[in-house]
Structures are given as structure tokens and as C-alpha cells.
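ok so i was messing around last nite and threw this chain in just to see what happens. nothing serious, just curious
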Amino acid sequence: MNKDQVKGKTKEVAGKVQEKVGEAVGSRQQQSEGLSNQAEGKAQKKVGDVKEIAKGNR
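result:
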């Protein structure tokens, strides 16, 4: 597991929490930011996955 995978997963989880908090308080902006963070986290995790695959093929 590399830094991108860890940071990506962390950002994804934090985004889920942010989205749920936004739902609880009725803030669409908070929900939107949470969804955005989830997407960024997933993308960063995928970058890390690709790096791991590339490292294993050397």
C-alpha cells in the first residue's frame, strides 16, 4: 500500500462523513463538498492502485 492509496481512502471516508453531516444539518453545500471529496479520494486511490501494479510488473 502506498501514500496515494492511503490518502485517497482517507479523503473518501472524510467526504462520506462530510456528506452525512451536511444531510443532518440540511446544508446542501456541505453535502456537495463531501461528494466532491469522495470523488477526489477515489481518483487518488486509483492512482495509487496503478502505481502498485506498475511497481509489481518491474
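not much to say yet. The two ends are 16 Å apart (CA to CA).
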